[in-house]
Design brief:
single chain, 925 residues, mainly beta, 22-stranded antiparallel barrel, 11 helices, 54 strands, 7% helix
Length: 925
């Protein structure tokens, strides 16, 4: 993906161009920074149907959000980029060199808002770029360059069909340009596209069709038992106090004890309970739909001045359906259901006479309400205009950018009104312990179709820069660039009444969402940022360039118009957190000791300001934890009564840190270094390696839930009693808020080798790209140093040691054939012990034994893709291909955090669609 070393001729005019990562126009050649370029041909060769899938094919990308993570995995309708596993919040995404409105209050851009049909090429800078672009570019930059100066009309269409049911993708686009900028002095370009993908379901693939999966590890047979106590007919958890004052609990399925069997679909008998196989009911990939339009205008005002304007609008929806509502609900002791389904079984289950029942929780799976589904719809608008040109030896540019995102989260199925559901239970129309065949019709009026939340993000940015030759040196002329920019960023969240639940702002609201969250609070924040920078290019020798750059950034404190105290009381708007300013620098060297060898290196510093929600987000319900043993072990502790039996889910609270002074959040700081070499011993062979190193300190992070739950003595203050507005009872939660508490170190080697040769059959080419990670480690209080390469870490993430891509192609003139091998190395799976109640041993007679501890390896993942491109005429191109030729299933894993309801594989790291056939057509006229 790298450009070959520049080979100029005496009669070819020297043209200076812009390069991602530099503000100085220079001759188009491999520079001092590692910039990978995906050409239009390579984009087509990838077989990708959208921008997110394209970026995911790059070996340097790890740790990004995929569309499958929206299936109850926290994706929220986003698709992102993350260079070298450092994180999506550290990877800056640009459109034609300018910022886009983020999907969050930081800088994370939803790639789903960028139409692939409008992209001409992609430039990926795999080195920090704070000195040019400001905060957030610590890991690097992904710059999408859109089509420009096109005069033809081009119609493109594609269809992608997986071998199995679901997951089909179709695309269509048209673009037309008028006027050649060089000949006519203007160019107008219009482009429109539509694409959509249907959902695929777990039940249609053998590797994901159940949460109960037999497997072998370390020479022994086991069964994964990824099941839920939230079931239908419902299970019950009874918490009681014995006569001697000790607390205890018991869980059971009344219907099982009454009938002796589990009566319903997707149920497994475990002890006295029928547990629900939720993984059998969910999507593997969500349904996607995108409509977009792009327009650009370029005018030569005169020989030295150009005007440009561009606009992009897109509407993207991600509809993710997962399991039916899983809801623990309090059962009053005065309820007829208590007398009918709880009282008869207490003695049988060992509850001693004289014990006092404190509470009963119904653990329900309301299947007849339908699978829960969220439609995440994002409407993105982006506009930029400005001038550039040259004047008396200066190259200059001035531009204004306005960009905005609006995302709505709408209930598309499954969620219910708690009040309406309670009324149905109270009236006897719905019996949670013995539902009837008409339950679907009974529950239908309670199903919600609300807009749960509306998120808006906007940026307005002014930029100006100029570069010129400043003085002569023995080896050439030094060049200087200076620039400045100003950005105002706004961010808001507007949760509806159901998402907020009963709070200080709506005390009369008594309803809540069955199957969803509650406790959200509004956010309305903004802040300003200005920066100034300089870059000096020094030709030290005829074959050596030194570039020195620096930047100063200033971020104001956050203005919060929806300001809440820790108890949820609305207080006066005002500034929160602290202002932040920082100077950063970078030094880069490019040296050609001989014509066929390039050596390059860089060293620099960077910083990342806290996101606005890092500061202003009120402490709210943060969802459910993973399964943990109760962290409260003393029976005399009042919180002990809130413990659940065995390993169970508990609540999480999340929020910002609005402190000022010594406790305020500070900017994260970084140091980056690169050292690369590219060798071209002959014209048709290019070998390139780039070593890189990134160190982060003062990293803003919350403590992991594993750390808090496993070290309750240390983090006792974070374990709190919280009144859940849905359960309408107190529950045990862990409060997780951000601090500058972590430091990280990432290091690795990227490589890019290519070989081209003419054969009797045509032009053959071989390209091998990859990333080898040598360090990915983080230090946090309590955990200490955690090395994350090749293992499932405490933050439920994996950093792969090796990722590589090898493509062999043959161009016969009319036909181009390509075979690609994609490889991810294996890793150590999530480690479980017997208390986690996840893995059961298979005994010699084939029966299932107890839950057992296990440590196992997830196997490596290799797939092959084939593509043939046919030039059927001057204007017509047809491309056909097969992804995953051998139909390799994703490697088995016992833990999947990428899609919370999926089981058996991890959708963040492997494609569940299997073998896919696709056909693309392009006609130009």
């Amino acid at each position: 993906m790298h450009t070959a070393l520049a080979q100029s001729t005496d009669d070819a005019p020297i043209q200076r161009v812009e390069i991602t990562g530099s503000s100085i126009k220079r001759i188009s050649a491999e520079g001092a920074l590692p910039v990978q370029t995906l050409s239009k041909l390579q984009i087509e060769q990838s077989g990708a149907t959208n921008v997110a899938d394209l970026i995911a094919t790059l070996p340097s990308m790890q740790g990004f959000t995929t569309s499958s993570m929206s299936v109850n995995g926290g994706g929220g309708g986003l698709q992102t980029a993350s260079i070298h596993a450092i994180g999506e919040g550290y990877t800056l995404v640009l459109l034609n060199g300018r910022r886009l409105a983020p999907s969050t209050s930081g800088s994370t851009v939803n790639l789903a808002s960028i139409p692939l049909a409008a992209v001409e090429r992609v430039e990926i800078l795999t080195d920090g770029a704070n000195t040019l672009y400001g905060s957030d570019a610590i890991a690097g930059v992904v710059n999408f360059i859109l089509k420009k100066n096109q005069t033809d009309a081009i119609i493109e269409a594609s269809y992608n069909q997986p071998r199995s049911t679901g997951g089909t993708t179709s695309t269509a686009s048209i673009s037309k340009g008028w006027g050649d900028l060089d000949k006519d002095g203007f160019n107008i370009l219009l482009s429109a596209s539509h694409d959509e993908s249907t959902a695929s379901y777990a039940k249609d693939q053998p590797f994901s069709q159940s949460g109960v999966i037999p497997f072998y590890a370390n020479g022994k047979a086991y069964n994964l038992y990824q099941l839920s106590s939230n079931s239908i007919p419902g299970t019950a958890t009874v918490k009681y106090t014995k006569a001697d004052g000790t607390a205890s609990s018991v869980a059971f399925s009344p219907n099982l004890l009454a009938t002796g069997a589990c009566n319903g679909a997707n149920l497994f008998k475990v002890g006295n309970r029928c547990l629900y196989d939720y993984a059998a009911t969910v999507e593997n990939t969500p349904g996607l739909k995108r409509d977009s339009g792009f327009a650009s205008l370029n005018i030569k005002v005169n020989d030295n001045t150009n005007f440009f304007a561009e606009g992009l609008i897109s509407s993207f929806s991600n509809t993710a359906q997962y399991a039916a509502p899983a809801q623990p609900l309090g059962l009053p002791l005065s309820s007829p259901l208590y007398a009918k389904y709880i009282t008869p079984y207490l003695t049988k289950l060992g509850v001693p006479a004289g014990a006092t029942v404190n509470s009963v929780t119904m653990n329900l799976r309301l299947v007849d309400a339908g699978g829960r589904a969220d439609e995440y719809k994002t409407v993105a608008k982006h506009a930029a205009f400005g001038f550039d040109g040259s004047y008396k030896g200066y190259d200059w540019r001035a531009a204004y950018t306005h960009s905005e995102n609006k995302q709505t989260d709408t209930a598309a199925g499954g969620y219910m009104s708690l009040n309406m559901f309670d009324a149905l239970v109270a009236s006897g129309k719905f019996d949670p312990f013995a539902p009837s065949g008409s339950s679907q019709a009974v529950l239908a009026p309670a199903v919600l179709h609300n807009e749960f939340n509306v998120t808006k993000s906007k940026i307005d940015m002014l930029q100006a820069s100029a570069s010129t030759e400043v003085f002569k040196m023995p080896a050439g002329v030094a060049q200087l660039a200076l620039g400045a920019d100003f950005t105002q960023q706004k961010y808001s969240e507007a949760p509806d009444a159901f998402s907020q639940g009963q709070n200080k702002q709506q005390p009369d609201f008594t309803d809540a969402i069955v199957g969803g969250g509650a406790g959200a609070l509004p956010i309305d924040a903004k802040r300003n940022n200005w920066g100034t920078y300089g870059e000096l290019l020094l030709p030290v020798l005829k074959n050596m360039d030194l570039t020195v750059s620096g930047r100063y950034d200033d971020f104001s404190a956050v203005t919060n118009n929806q300001n809440f105290d820790t108890d949820g009381n609305l207080i006066a708007p005002g500034k929160q957190g602290e202002s932040a300013s920082k100077a950063t620098y970078k030094v880069a060297l490019r040296w050609n000791p001989v014509e066929s060898v390039l050596i390059r290196g860089s060293y620099g510093t960077g910083f990342k300001a806290p996101t606005m929600t890092n500061i202003v987000k009120p402490l709210v319900n943060g969802g459910s934890s993973a399964f943990h043993a109760c962290p409260i072990t003393s029976a005399s502790d009042p919180r002990f009564k809130l413990c659940n039996p065995g390993s169970s889910e508990y609540g999480l609270l999340s929020g910002g840190n609005a402190a000022t002074g010594a406790g305020a959040l500070r900017p994260e700081q970084s140091k980056q270094a690169t050292l690369g070499i590219r060798i071209e011993p002959v014209n048709n062979l290019s070998i390139g390696f780039d070593w890189w190193d990134v160190k982060l300190r003062d990293q803003i992070q919350t403590l992991s839930e594993d750390l808090v739950f496993n070290n309750p003595a240390v983090y006792d203050s974070l374990l709190r009693t919280y009144f859940d507005p849905i359960q309408k009872q107190n529950v045990l939660v862990a409060a997780l808020t951000p601090f500058n508490l972590a430091s990280s170190h990432y290091q690795g080697i990227d490589w890019d080798h290519s070989y081209k040769v003419k054969t009797a059959l045509g032009k053959a080419a071989l390209q091998w790209t990859g990333t080898f990670m040598t360090k990915a480690e983080q230090t946090t209080p309590g955990t200490g140093l955690e090395k994350n390469i090749g293992r499932f870490n405490s933050y439920s993430e994996v950093t792969f040691r090796w990722i590589s891509k090898l493509t062999a192609s043959l161009n016969t003139g009319r036909f181009t054939h390509a075979l690609t091998a994609n490889y991810h190395s294996g890793y150590t799976d999530q480690v479980y012990n017997e208390d986690d109640s996840v893995v059961r041993e298979v005994l010699a007679d084939g029966s299932l034994g107890n839950y057992v501890p296990i440590t196992r390896q997830v196997s490596s993942y290799t797939t092959f893709d084939w593509q043939t491109k046919a030039q059927l005429g001057k204007n017509f191109t047809l491309t056909g291909g097969i992804k995953n030729l051998a139909d390799i299933a994703p490697p088995f894993t016992i833990r999947n955090a990428g899609g919370g309801n999926q089981s058996g594989y991890d959708g963040r790291y492997a494609d569940p669609l299997g073998r896919q056939f696709y056909l693309n057509g392009s006609y130009k006229f």
